[in-house]
Amino acid sequence: MPCSATPSAPVSGYVAASTAQPVQLDLQQLSVNYGDVSAVKSVNLQLHQGEIGCLLGPSGCGKSTLLRTIAGFETLQQGRITMHGVQLAEPQHQLPPEQRKIGMVFQDIALFPHLTVAQNIAFGLRQQTKQQIQQRVSELLKLIGLPDTEERYPSSLSGGQQQRVALARALAPKPDLLLLDEPFSGLDATLKETLVPEVRQILQKENITALMVTHDQMEAFAIADRVAIMQQGEIHQFDTPYEIYHAPKTRFVADFIGQGHFVPALAFNHCEIKTNFVNASLQFEHGFDVETPIELLIRPDDLEHDDDSELTGTIISKQFRGTSFQYEIELPCGERALCIASSHHDHGVGEAIGIRLDLQHVIFFVKDNPGED
Ligand SMILES: Nc1ncnc2c1ncn2[C@@H]1O[C@H](COP(=O)(O)OP(=O)(O)OP(=O)(O)O)[C@@H](O)[C@H]1O
């Protein structure tokens, strides 16, 4: 695994308030296999009471398997799942899903079409008195912002409204944990933009501990207190969205999150690095050995357009984004990088423009030794 070397660590502007709470969900060394396929490998993850976590990673990295194993639909081969101190599963003993007090929300909504909204929400409350059920249903309808829909049927609601009812149905029995499997993926982008923060607020008001699977990093950042970045069954980093973006712990996380290009560089003394296009003097937490090959991650916001800069790059392609242009630039060393410029600076493809590297935020990785695993 590549080791990261970032300039002095940024101060997080994102506070995950709930990490002060007791641990609610605890996964220890969890491994799940399908025959020869090792889908989840020795995963450790803890969620605190009221915390919203997110599993994010490329297709096939094991997100759904991990979620389904917590729910009790898959069998673990190694490790332990504990919920507020009570063991739910280990290889010799696994509680069936219905005994785990876990609520689930799926991508395909799956409301009962022949039941009203109120009946759908009340579905898991059959052990309670009629009055208790009515009270919980109206409390939840108010919470999801659909107070006058008790008697309506799911087919008369929009996709976003249906997903909010599905959420209310899962929350109704006050589960110990809520699992959400790509709950927004069937909805259009505009609806998602409003629904995702709304769902975060609903979960926070209920003080529910939740774990969501998604492919979409913006969705993960908008809903989660902490995001787990997965690859090939392993968690690379479980951290706040801010830390994931600004202080990625592995090269995979740095590459997977956000946009950017890796540019080769070399340490030429203990605390300075050199690229083919700029010498940079940086404060490192840990210095490098001289001549250490380094990769420098340049994100679009690290490379600014500056007409007064002596350093220039050639525009390879451009994207208009309303408030800004994003230019793909060929650097003097032949490497490429993305550069953000005000949308008033409209330059053509092939044109050379002044660029300036903002060294405060650049992230470095020691380049993998090709001989290593
Ligand atoms: N029922 C199964 N039988 C055999 N292999 C499976 C089964 N389900 C998943 N896998 C394999 O396990 C690995 C993890 O799959 P999983 O569905 O958990 O990934 P994922 O990250 O949720 O993917 P996606 O984002 O595409 O849904 C993959 O290699 C997949 O092919």
TrEMBL record:
It holds the Pfam family TOBE_2. SUPFAM superfamilies: MOP-like, P-loop containing nucleoside triphosphate hydrolases. Keywords: ATP-binding, Nucleotide-binding, Transport. GO terms for biological process: quaternary ammonium group transport. It comes from the Bacteria. SMART domains: AAA (SM00382). Coiled coil: none annotated. Residues 25-257 form the ABC transporter domain. One of its GO terms (molecular function) is ATP binding. One of its GO terms (cellular component) is ATP-binding cassette (ABC) transporter complex. InterPro entries: AAA+_ATPase, ABC_SmlMolc_Importer, ABC_transporter-like_ATP-bd, ABC_transporter-like_CS, Mo/tungstate-bd_C_term_dom, P-loop_NTPase, Transp-assoc_OB_typ2. This is ABC transporter ATP-binding protein. It comes from Corallincola holothuriorum.
